[in-house]
Design goal:
Layout (H helix, E strand, L loop, with lengths): L1 E6 L6 H9 L16 E10 L2 E10 L2 E8 L11 H21 L13 H9 L5 H11 L4 H17 L7 E8 L17 H4 L2 H22 L2 E9 L7 H14 L7 E7 L6 H9 L4 E4 L6 H6 L6 H14 L4 E7 L6 H14 L3 E6 L7 H5 L9 H16 L3 E6 L10 E5 L6 H8 L3 E5 L4 E5 L6 E5 L4 H6 L6 H12 L2
Parallel strand pairs: 1-2, 5-6, 5-13, 6-7, 7-8, 8-9, 9-10
Antiparallel strand pairs: 2-3, 3-4, 10-12, 11-12, 14-15
Length: 495
């Protein structure tokens, strides 16, 4: 997609204009030369009086729409900085042009980024009431009423969850980046190959060594661990002995006395056995996930999930019989071959089974996912099916006692929708909130894992990334960045 940008403000970079373009042209690329896309856009952003002037001209083949908006004289709901002022000018222009050209407004308006709830919580915790934040979202950002209410409910729940979390509290993430097969919507192509699966024993050796180093850093810096999350990939791909070894190392190396939750992402129902879950339970895990993604067998086949719906039911019953009292299930809206009727039916079955929490994702089209290349109709900016399913889930879940407690967005999500965690009161996942809201540090071990160091005021965030692929991780001797972590705590936590 070709972009022509006339931006004299210096406030917004080219990436921001690309992000705005993806609201109506999902999946488009922005090459410097050789572009053959029938889509293009021209953007103008400049200072005007006491505000900014934005103009957007969007082209889709032989159709064109143009709109402009000025914030000169515009009274914002709350005081905003210059960057947000400029974003409003060009963002509103894009929404107006896009609505004229395509007939809809994205549900999140022109808001970009993963964390819209963080913005809502920022204002709520600074003395603004719900009505003011509600007006800010709907009037100034162009967010729909439904997504505004979702943001407010989630922000209020997060605020309650974060009470008592101090500056030196932290979470631990442990990465098991292996899967039995690759899903069509997944971009991690190498993680399911036999060669990589053969690396698991060596991977565990290295992972436990990094956990040992991380535990030492926590002791040396006085950091208190409040949540542990073992994710993937599919952690339940480990056999019972490997599972016992890994989780046993966590309990042996770390002070678990302040840990509120210990989560293990069992993931694929076809990897769940009684022996594995018994090992998980015996090592102190308090919360697990069993993720069908869909309860429509045709959908499971279309996305390459090598398990049946009955295996999901069996895995759930096994988890209950082992003694787990907090179980999460993941569902995805907008999957190929799904219908509104089958999605609703699947959601109702999961609700009736009594899961303590449900995480509702919306299909996101990753650049390297097979789905992107296999289906011509995969991108759908309006996303009527996905949006309808997400709306139904919000109404249904909140109507029967679940509350949204964390939320994040991704690029190229069908219908510009979001991913939301719902739970029964008291069954939320603290790790998810700490990660998404960047409220406290998260230490991470394993391939692709990213340690995120957060200063007490939240104004400084530093990331230390491990190598992405397991074979890279094993060959990299850099470790966890122990010295840099200690320096960060001296710089920002030295009273």
């Amino acid at each position: 997609m070709r972009l022509t940008i006339d931006n004299t403000t210096g406030l917004l970079n080219d990436y921001y204009f690309q992000t705005l373009s993806l609201l109506y042209f999902p999946g488009e690329k922005f090459p410097e030369s050789g572009d053959t896309s029938p889509a293009s856009a021209e953007y103008t952003l400049k200072r005007q009086g006491n505000g900014y002037y934005g103009k957007a001209v969007l082209h889709a083949g032989d159709r064109t729409a143009s709109a402009e908006f000025s914030t000169d004289g515009y009274v914002f709901t709350v005081p905003v900085d210059e960057k947000n002022n400029a974003s409003c000018a060009i963002g509103t222009a894009v929404l107006r042009a896009g609505r004229e050209l395509f007939g809809f407004t994205p549900p999140w308006g022109y808001l970009s980024g993963l964390r819209p709830v963080k913005r809502a919580r920022y204002y709520l915790t600074r003395g603004y009431d719900k009505d003011t934040v509600r007006t800010l979202f709907t009037r100034d950002y162009g967010v729909s009423e439904e997504k505004t209410e979702l943001s407010l409910r989630t922000a209020l729940r997060e605020t309650e969850m974060l009470r008592g979390i101090g500056g030196k509290d932290a979470a631990l993430y442990i990465s098991i980046p292996f899967c039995p097969t690759r899903c069509e919507y997944c971009s991690f192509v190498s993680y399911a190959t036999p060669r990589l699966l053969s690396l698991i024993p060596d991977y565990l050796d290295r992972l436990i060594a990094d956990l040992d180093s991380t535990a030492r850093v926590l002791r040396d810096t006085g950091v208190r661990l409040v949540a542990v999350y073992v994710g993937g990939g599919t952690p339940s791909i480990l056999d019972p002995k490997q599972t016992d070894r890994l989780l046993g190392a966590v309990g042996r190396l770390f002070d678990m006395s302040s840990v509120r939750e210990f989560t293990f992402e069992a993931g694929r129902p076809d990897t769940v056995t009684r022996e594995k879950l018994a090992a998980v339970k015996a090592q102190g895990v308090t919360r697990i996930s069993i993720n069908p993604q869909s309860l429509n067998q045709n959908v499971l086949k279309a996305i390459g999930r090598q398990h049946t719906v009955d295996q999901f039911f069996d895995a759930y019953e096994t988890a209950r019989s082992v003694g787990f009292s907090c179980i999460n299930a993941d569902l995805i809206a907008g999957l190929p071959e799904d219908t509104e009727e089958s999605f609703r039916s699947g959601l109702e079955k999961v609700i009736s089974m009594g899961f303590e929490s449900l995480t509702l994702h919306t299909l996101s089209i990753k650049n390297a996912a097979p789905l992107r290349f296999d289906r011509e109709d995969v991108y759908d900016p309006a996303g009527i099916l996905a949006a309808s399913c997400v709306s139904y889930a919000y109404d249904r879940l909140t109507g029967c006692g679940y509350e949204p407690y964390y939320l994040y967005r991704q690029k190229n999500t069908v219908g510009n929708c979001e991913n939301t965690g719902y739970s029964r009161p008291g069954q939320e996942n603290l790790y998810n909130v700490l990660m998404m809201e960047e409220y406290a540090s998260v230490f991470a071990c394993g391939a692709g894992a990213i340690t995120k160091l957060v200063s007490p005021d939240g104004n400084v965030i530093e990331r230390l990334a491990h190598r992405k692929y397991p074979y890279e991780y094993l060959s990299d001797s850099a470790g966890i960045g122990e010295e840099r972590i200690k320096e960060f705590y001296v710089e920002h936590f030295n009273d």
